[in-house]
Specification:
Elements: E1 10-12, E2 15-17, E3 21-31, E4 37-46, E5 49-57, H1 66-76, E6 84-90, H2 95-99, H3 123-134, E7 141-148, E8 152-160, H4 165-174, E9 178-181, H5 189-195, E10 200-207, H6 213-229, E11 244-245, E12 249-253, E13 258-262, E14 269-270, E15 275-280, E16 287-291, E17 296-302, E18 306-307, E19 312-317
Parallel strand pairs: 5-6, 5-7, 7-10, 8-9, 9-11
Antiparallel strand pairs: 1-2, 3-4, 4-6, 8-10, 8-17, 12-19, 13-15, 13-18, 14-17, 15-16, 17-19
């Protein structure tokens, strides 16, 4: 009788995670001015049977906490009882930003514009370098959890790379309400992964520094959908709902400064010419309606009440 093939051994930061083993690995990054060590906690689940190695990460921007809570819940509920393959879970990549309630690291740099990074560069660049060299070589594909930046609220959506068919497939399996192709940005984690031929999708949902239960539940269901589809989970059922594939997207911007009052819900279908919101002055003298530029869907609303001319207010697509 032939021996059953075993899964591969994963090596992260000098630690080996053998088939059938689960381990918490810590990648040391730097120290606070007080001398307190800052490291990135990496939870590794390696099944005995061979299969894909999937990266699940959140907190690349430290103030985007929906993804952090998503992965925390899944870890707490022991959701990674794998039949095959491996899952690498990084609940908080940007520890510095998280403890400072900030998108960026203390020097103001965005880690998600610092990939692939350098060993002796800025703090953001060093974080990106360690991550690029320790984590990315181990994985086959991944899901990067984000929220809207600032006070922009994203309706649950998955963004994939048009040039990468596997990332589109993963987006479809994830089964968020909306999905669409998104351009690669220089210095971003997704572009670094693309250059290493590691398909990545970005799940965007909710608003920074606020928990959104619908966004969290959609993320948990989507992750399980992907793991189930690849045969990695058998104790969980995939859920399928109707999806909308957006072909084009555009921002609707403020034509003047003032106070901004949205008049539509996020995630709804919109009609060209429909009133989406109003910009008014503080003296009740002037107001300006914001009209939908197309038939399509609303998938991001800016919740900033006082706005300037040119500010992005709505993100819409068809």
């Amino acid at each position: 009788m032939p021996l059953e093939e075993e899964n591969k051994i994963l090596k992260i930061n000098g630690d080996e995670i053998k088939p059938g083993e689960n381990k918490l690995v810590r990648i040391q990054i730097s120290r606070l001015p007080t001398g307190t060590l800052i490291d990135i906690p990496v939870h590794v689940f390696n099944a005995k049977k061979p299969g894909p190695t999937v990266l699940l990460q959140a907190g690349l921007h430290g103030d985007e906490i929906n993804g952090v809570e998503t992965l925390r819940r899944m870890l707490e509920k022991n959701d990674f009882k794998l039949e095959k393959g491996a899952v690498i879970v990084v609940p908080i990549l940007n520890i510095f930003g998280f403890i400072h309630f900030s998108r960026d690291v203390p020097d103001g740099k965005d880690v998600n514009r610092s990939f692939p990074g350098t060993k002796s560069g800025s703090l953001a660049s060093r974080m990106a370098y360690h991550y690029t060299n320790e984590i990315l070589p181990q994985v086959d594909f991944g899901i990067d959890l984000h929220t809207g930046g600032g006070q922009r609220h994203n309706y649950p959506q998955v963004r994939y790379t048009a040039e990468d068919k596997t990332s589109k497939k993963i987006a479809e399996i994830f089964n968020a309400p909306l999905y669409f192709a998104s351009k690669l940005i220089s210095g971003s984690f997704r572009k670094a992964a693309f250059n290493m031929q590691k398909p990545m999708v970005v799940y965007e949902a909710g608003e920074s520094m606020r928990f959104d239960e619908f966004s969290i539940q959609t993320a948990i269901a989507g992750i399980k959908n992907v793991l189930c589809d690849y045969g990695m989970l058998t104790n969980s059922k995939s859920t399928r709902k109707e999806m909308v594939h957006l072909q084009t997207t555009r921002w609707v911007r403020a034509s003047r400064a003032g106070m901004f009052i949205p008049e539509v819900e996020n995630g709804v279908a919109i009609k060209k010419g429909q009133t989406l919101g109003v910009i008014t002055d503080t003296f009740a003298k002037r107001s300006k309606k914001i009209l939908a530029p197309l038939d399509g869907y609303m998938f991001c609303i800016n919740h900033q009440a006082v706005i300037n001319q040119g500010d992005a207010l709505f993100h819409v697509g068809r």
